[in-house]
Amino acid sequence: MRGGGGGGGHPGFRPVDTEAQRKANAEAPRIPNLGRRVVALFRPYTFSIVITGVLVVAGAGIAVIPPLLVQRVFDDALFPVDGSAPDLTLLWQLVLAMIALFLLSAAVGVVQTWLTSTVGNRVTGDLRVTLFDHLQSMELGFFTRTKTGVIQSRLQNDVGGVSGVLTNTVTSILGNTVTVVASLVAMILIDWRLTIIAVVLMPFLIIVQRRVGQVRARIAGETQESLSELTSITQETLSVSGILLSKSFNRQRTESARYADENVNQVRLQVRRAMSGQGFFAVVQVIMASVPAIIYLVSGYLIGTGTDAITAGTIVAFTTVQARLLMPLMGLMRVSLDLQTSAALFARIFEYLDLVPAIKDAPDAIDVSQAPGPVGRIEFRDVVFRYPDAAPEARATLQGVSFVADPGQHVAFVGPSGAGKTTVLYLTPRLYEASGGSVLFAGEDVRRLRQESIVDNVGIVSQETYLFHATIRENLRYAKPDATDAELEAACRAANIHHVIERFENGYDTVVGERGYRLSGGEKQRIAIARVLLKDPPVLLLDEATSALDTVSERVVQEALDAAARGRTTLSIAHRLSTVIDADVIHVVEAGRIVESGTHASLLAAGGLYAELAAQQLATTRILEAEGAEPPADHPERRADTAPDEPLTLTAAELEERGIRPAVIGDRTPDH
């Protein structure tokens, strides 16, 4: 507690826009029993907090003792009132005492800082982990309706600000209070008349200080907004997608100009911030210098009267104590706002901690292994589903859906976009809760099963493959952390990707880049399939796993999917009907209902929606004749996942045999 600042630094000059902060505090949610819950967070560290409080009080008290010793140094040791020579023995004692107090104050400050930092950051860490763990338990719907940035703000900004409650707010209030009281008592003991003069002048200095802080805070806010805009421009234009967009439309100069314009604004604000309040600071300096000067003047008059004369030691000691009084007073003036801000931070955190997951295990939930039916059997009984945030008058996403998928069976779902196909997949592992009817897994209602147990038996391959910015090996082991290299290789061979990985310079230690950008779409998808194979689940859910791929890549990935589906119950969604023609059962979904069911051949023969979808894809002939057609010729050199060891070159005669006319330089006839 150096200088009695209460650990708060220079609170009078902190760049905080009071009005903006109060507005933000007012918008915080109202949490019942907030005080008790906050105290409960610190309860495991009660002993450390008590020791911290004792050190804060001790440090603040020690800080006002040296000025009292200064008075004795001048009046008793250096310039004795009786006019005798300096008392060097007493001077040594006083100087050593002052040095000892400075050392003690420094030691107390170090220990106090360590304790407050340790407790504050441990509470913050506990709270961050608790909140993160709670968010992991929230249902999928929470994340689809909540911005990722809002969640990140809770975890980073709000939780991060909590550590300041103990390290700044609490210690500042306690330390500043003790410092102000101790300083005023010391000033009165030194000379009550000078105390009145100093206290009268202090409000003027505080008002000026607050005005300076407000002006600088507003400019600091504008500067941060400008920095945010610069950051936004950087993220938008220098990301992989952004730079590709600007280059494809030849807008690099436009983006550079936009960045330069905002940079000019940033420079202007930085200069304005540096110059803001300089006039006020000049006034502050004058006032700060004037208070001791006025005390010197008053002391001169008091000495001139010859009555109750003031000594030099009294003047030096008084001005030393008075100089320590300003910043603690400024800190105490912000106590109310600091407490409100701390409460608002905790309220926003507890608002998320109080969220109740829409999907929770029943108290008597059982594992899938205890279910009565065979693992891999999935059944929907008159399932109705409506999204929680759907309009009341809107139709339900699913309306009376019923079907059965037996172990090892491939069941496909096709239909127009928005028909409810993906919802069927999400309801199977209970990522969403059915609004009506029953979803059965292994012969048991999923509401009676532990959700973790269901997910352990399900593998999901989605259209949007997500890979971490890590190595291929690390991405694969996300499914099975203790998997051996042999198991990784076996899964990748089954997913038709091992031979591709081997050709990378670093093999399985190749870093895939942000969201797997360094890999092609087909490569990412096959790594995702290998990851699911490593998990080895009895149920496989395929959500349009090849819809974003080209025809050649689709064929390679489809081969991997077919291999992955062998011996597993597979529910698949597809827009390309050619990928599901071999399914055991195809359900056609329209407007939340299953309107047709059957095999590929029977559905085509029925001439219903399935046949219409096939015609709309302009692939009717290929799909209709798939059963009787000869299998397509395999050209290994053309596969998307392989490349010939030698360049593929054909002679002119060989090209002519294949009906291809060689291009001739200078041949510019309309036919070519």
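the 2nd protein, sequnce then structure:
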Amino acid sequence: MAQPTQKRPRKHRVAALELPPGKWRAMGSELRRGSVVVRLSLVVLTLLGLAAITRAWRPPAEFHAGQTPLRNLTARVEFKQPDDKATDEARDLARRLATAVYEHDPARVTQLKARVVNELSELASAESLDTVDPEIWASYALPPPAEGTPAPTPEQEQEQFAKLRTVLSEAGQLDAAQATLGEAFAPLERHGLMVRLPPEHEANQKQIQVRRVDSPGFDATVEISETLVENATRQLQRTFEQKLPSLDLAARVFNRIRTALPETLKLDPIATRAEQDRAEAEVVTQYKVFPVGSVLATGSKMLDEASLKLLDAERSAWLHARSSWESVLRFVAATALYGALFVVVAFVLRRHDRGVLSRLPRLVTLLATVLLTVAAMTLANSREWRAEAIPLLLLAMTAAVAYGRINALVMSAATTLIASVGLGLGTYDAVLLLGPASAAAIALDSVRTRSKLLIVGFVAAGVAAALALCVGQLAGLSLLDATQTAVRLALWSVIAASLMTCLLPLVERVFDVQTDLSLLELGDPAHPLLQELVRRAPGTYNHSITVASLAEAATESIGGRALLTRVGAYFHDIGKMLKPQYFVENQSRGDNRHQSLAPAMSTLVIIAHVKDGVDLARQHHLPERIIDFIQQHHGTTLVEYFYRQASSRKEADENAAAVDESAFRYPGPRPQTKEAAVLMIADAVESASRVLVEPTPARIESLVEELAHKRLVDGQFDECGLTLQEVSRVCDSLVKSLTAVYHGRVKYPEQEPSKGVSA
């Protein structure tokens, strides 16, 4: 007796089921791919670049001109600030204390000394007063003891001369007198003489530098008092009285020299200024020390330039006092914050435009754009002018054109937060920047006219002005300051829109995106490829025009880019023009070239029109978005007619080769966008509806649902994000459009030929 089959326990049956991988497990498998590692590496490099641009290792400045702090701002660390006033005073003092430079010519003093020595020798050798030059004797005459005293008589003069000659004639006295003169004149020859300081002497009042003209290397610093003739005269008198043989001789020699002392010092203004400049340059900057807790700015008082200088100096000292570890931690924290914002943007892009993340060139372009935007905002940062709004507005409009409004809003918000952290912008500042950018992104739904971007600029300008006035009131700014900010932001919005108008062709090329304006130009029937399609395959051209009309309405029903779908439909079958007679729409009645071909060969001919179309499109430089429609409008669907034909032959002939289904499928890829999926359905139903005997609305609806269901079950819509609800809307739109095309016509009664009216 056969043993009954034992059932497996429930847990074993459940374990035997193969469940699809979860979201996180699938994401983990994606991260293990090499291409994803490259993308993550690029993202990390971008994050490091953003951190470097914003100098994430150091906190930004917290205060700016015109800001009113709510409390007193005190010093966190002890610091010193250059004291300009004290430094200027020190430099002025240094110039005043610098020693002036005088040129000294000792020749005149030496000559005077030599004349006196010669005159004394002449007086000593004279036999009588009569043999002495009267002028020489007069120069040695003693001044009258009192005013009104009569001049000495000749006899008295003879007696005085004889007395003087006796003194000089004694052995060694003349030599002693000469030695005394040399000793007395030596200081005068060394440092020179001047009557008084010249008016232009604006330097040290106690000392001067003396440079002898006869000795270039001589440079001595002397007291000014030693160079004055008045002081030198008194010193000479004392020396003569102490060193000469008699007081009479001392008085006569002093009287001779007193009025003959020459002025040998002359101020050198150029050298003096150089000495003053040198002394001024040696003055170090004077600083004012601020201890910890010093009040740097008073609360409830608008910050002025002086307060900002103090705050900047305190911040520099505080940054210098921070440890390297603190800088590293802040750098890591800022980079992590930027990374978190990138993750948010990535999730939004993955939902709304997956191609940005899957295509490496588009990802590189996106990362470079964000990096350049933050760099431009950093360079243009000015709380007074708010010029950093221009790069952000350009980013918002570029992202709206390239990635759509939702992605543009998220990217603008993330970039604003990055700039706010890096530049130290407050909440109000971030609102002022993000508001106009968000308005521009929302208003820029499509670019069908050249004036669209300017209209967007004026919309953003209005939002910017309103926000600036509101934020100004919240921040406590005066109406004048708030109005100035509003005018500036509105002006930057219009300027950014004007720049975007000029940059639009470049944006389309760099981001590989087509605006409605460029699509309208591309969809011109005069395009060379379309003209060639009309000439070679008129049936395919009419089919493409009809499919374009059907697909445009269907795409519009699900909120897609209807114009893009229409233009893509124009070009989706251009590959058929190379072998037009192999496609039914171009065949005349009874002319079917596939009758002489095997099903597999016919399939190759049919499938080849996709590759041929891509090659033609690339030769004519069509955009990648249009080429995607050519590649994806059949996906990996089965060439069902020839597959069934091959299967039937296999059933009739058992010796025939086995039929491989994959050989009868298009190479793909499957539709990657909703627009491409809509084109796939529209292309299929348009071709199939041509063979309907009686295209009633019910039959059309059944046909559309059948073809859409086949492709849905076949997995053709798995990679485009098309939902079941959207598939239903597309089908409803196609049914309406086809019903309108194949609407019933009134059957007119036959009329007599004689009336000249044909049926």
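Confidence is low (pLDDT under 50) at residues 1-27, 29-33, 751-759. The longest strand covers residues 207-212.
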